[in-house]
Design brief:
With about 210 residues, the protein is an all-alpha fold. Helices cover about 55% and strands about 0% of the residues. α4 runs antiparallel to α7.
């Protein structure tokens, strides 16, 4: 019988060794390697920096003048060639103003039509004739005539001359004269009445304006 050796008994179970890790696939496509190599070759080439330098100098000399432009007097002959930047503008102020004026002359004036003017004028006429007929009933004395003129001037800002007041008194402030005046106002209001003749600037009278 063979002697028993306790050392041969394994009381602890060994952990199984982990499987070997797979190496990552760091393979780069050949076409990409070729492109990267081509780019590196261009960057490392001295001609690349020469081209960049040439382009930079061209841009600077094209858009930035080499020195400030001298101040020339009108009619003076330049002592050297003058190179102006491409965005430089020299304005002929006299011609510009002339063209602006010509353009302004071709634009016709625009007027605002106030439709209430005719109605307000009719109201003033009727008010005058009503007051005048009251005057005729009381007796057209000089103080009363002056009082009527003052009242009308204060109320509407219209001054009735003595001759006009005399003519209206002779007519007795008749309704016929009143209606004739209103008819004339309506007639001329249709074509347009400008508040002042100083506003005529484009032959408005030939177009029917008054």
């Amino acid at each position: 019988m063979e002697p028993f050796n306790i050392k041969k008994i394994n009381f602890f179970k060994k952990n199984p060794s982990p499987p070997p890790k797979k190496k990552k696939n760091n393979h780069i496509p050949a076409t990409l390697k070729k492109e990267i190599g081509f780019i590196k070759k261009i960057i490392n080439s001295p001609y690349f920096y020469f081209v960049i330098f040439t382009i930079s100098i061209t841009i600077l000399t094209t858009y930035i003048p080499s020195h400030s432009l001298p101040n020339f007097e009108e009619g003076e002959i330049a002592s050297s060639n003058v190179v102006a930047p491409s965005d430089m503008t020299i304005e002929d102020t006299e011609t510009t103003e002339k063209r602006k004026q010509e353009a302004a002359d071709t634009v016709l004036p625009v007027y605002s039509l106030d439709e209430n003017v005719s109605l307000n004028t009719e109201e003033k006429i009727r008010d005058l004739f009503n007051s005048g007929r009251d005057l005729m009933q009381k007796g057209p004395t000089s103080p009363r005539i002056e009082s009527l003129r003052k009242e009308y001037a204060d109320k509407y800002g219209i001054d009735i001359s003595s001759s006009t007041a005399g003519s209206l008194i002779q007519e007795g402030f008749s309704t016929q004269v009143e209606e004739d005046l209103i008819t004339l106002v309506r007639k001329y209001s249709k074509t347009g009445i400008i508040t002042s003749k100083s506003l005529f600037s484009s032959n408005e009278q030939e177009r029917g304006f008054t």
